[in-house]
Amino acid sequence: MEKKIFVYDTTLRDGAQGENVSFSVQDKLRVARKLDELGVHYIEGGWPGSNEKDAEFFRLAADRSWQTAKLAAFGSTALAKNQPSEDPNLQALLAARTPVVTIFGKTWDFHVHAALRIPLTRNCELIRASVAYLKSQGREVIFDAEHFFDGFAANADYALQTLKAAADGGADLISLCDTNGGSLPSRIREAIGRVQATVRLPLGIHCHNDSELAIANTIAAVECGVVQVQGTMNGYGERCGNANLCSIIPNLELKMGLDVIGEDRLRLLTSASRFVSQIANLRNRKDLPFVGESAFAHKGGVHVSAVIRDAATYEHILPEMVGNERRILVSELSGRSNLLFKAREMNLDIAEHEEKLKLALQQIKKLENQGYEFEAAEGSVRVLLETAINGEREFFRVDYFRVVTDMHRTGEVICEATVKARVGDKSVHTVAEGDGPVHALDKALRLALNQFFEPLRSVTLIDYKVRVLTGSHGTASRVRVHIQQTDGEEIWTTVGVSVNILEASYIALADGIRYKLLKTLA
């Protein structure tokens, strides 16, 4: 029978302490629902005794049904001056109405002396009495042994006494915390061995990532017999973050053969990761293992050729197992295999066009030498491949464009673009104002073409990025422009390069329009 490992997610509490991470009450409810769908076993919703937002979250969450997860409220042991039954923090935890309460206590004698300023014996009594009181109120109680591994290194006997106090109070589980994130796996293993010989309770592990070892330390703890792993989605958290559950869960499930959330729910991992980053208003980190966009992206021609034959040559798992997908990138490092894959992915007929494909590859390498970057501009790749295989299809031609920027004495800036375009034997001349020169050009170009091509009417520009490529030339430097557009269903990116930022922008804009027309009219 597979060993069961329980996942304790603290994204909404410890993760929210990370820089630039902020959740509203409604955000927290949405994230909690997504975590429940993913199949985590515990969701730590916050610290109700510390702020009104977390208290409000628990008020709303208590009346909702949860499929797989138990909600946990987080707080500290009672203050030294209070009896547990009269301590405001413990009362706030009970008022949260969660089936699980997690409290942390000091296990490092340095903290007891420097932070709490109480005798070591009094700290142990606070731990025992706080746990016992919460248990008397019918709660499942998890004791978070704060700074345990540092405390164990400094004074192992005392650190273990604090755990005995939690056990004597009736704790259901003790989670050992590497709060400063500085421990090595060997120290984790040594300390857990001593703990297992001292207390007969299930153990959990809670690691921070200050030494880039949070995941490794968590895996080491599980190998030692720990049954609960604590962490956050995408590794969010204070300083360098927490152990990343998006890596821990698949490693345990797929590499160690443990029962965690199950294969079916594991396929939801990538979408859950990206959902949380979206709610947190943070960009998805492309380089995250398992769930990042680059996790199964292949760029080198030798790699791609091998992956097409057998993905196991350069992939440690199938991306579908965690809900991700394989991506083949096109760049100056590409080989014929990259373009063959992209052409098939785009449903382009390449059976009789081997020589044309070689010319397309040569063109890509030439353009990338000039500063183009196609791995992030798959819309431009589609246009280039389509043109190489089927010849250029001239949907439209722009005879000229002009952009004028006027600054008035009042400080108002007006940007106006004029475009003269030709579609077949018809010519159109349009003028549009915009918030900036590129916006004006985009509006004038669409005004000219929308009247001829109905599919373009749903297309909007959603992102615009400029990068200076040759900074030594100052304002005369070559620039690369990436433009992202959408029709409400699909998003595509195109690229343009020039020493003139408007020309680079026009190249990318025009390629984006051609991409849409090729997809819908070709």
Report on this model:
With 522 residues, the chain is an alpha/beta fold. 40% of the residues lie in helices and 20% in strands. The mean pLDDT is 91. The strands form 4 sheets. The protein has an 8-stranded parallel β-barrel with strand order 1-2-3-4-5-6-7-8, surrounded by 9 helices. It has a 3-stranded antiparallel β-sheet with strand order 11-12-13, with helices on one face. The protein has a 3-stranded antiparallel β-sheet with strand order 14-15-16. Helix 5 packs parallel to helix 7 and helix 15 crosses helix 16. The chain folds into 3 domains: 274 residues, Aldolase class I (TIM Barrel, Alpha-Beta Barrel), CATH 3.20.20.70; 94 residues, no CATH class; 57 residues, Double Stranded RNA Binding Domain (2-Layer Sandwich), CATH 3.30.160. It has 18 helices and 16 strands.
Summarize the helices and strands and which ones pair or pack:
Elements (H helix, E strand, L loop, with lengths): L5 E4 L15 H14 L3 E5 L5 H10 L8 E7 L11 H8 L4 E7 L2 H8 L3 H17 L3 E7 L1 H7 L1 H14 L3 E6 L6 H12 L6 E5 L6 H10 L4 E4 L13 H11 L7 H4 L2 H11 L17 E2 L2 H9 L17 E2 L7 H10 L8 H16 L8 H13 L6 E11 L5 E11 L2 E9 L2 H13 L10 E9 L10 E8 L4 E8 L2 H21 L1
Parallel strand pairs: 1-2, 1-8, 2-3, 3-4, 4-5, 5-6, 6-7, 7-8, 9-10
Antiparallel strand pairs: 11-12, 12-13, 14-15, 15-16
Helix pairs in contact: 1-2, 1-12, 5-7, 6-7, 8-9, 13-14, 15-16, 16-18, 17-18
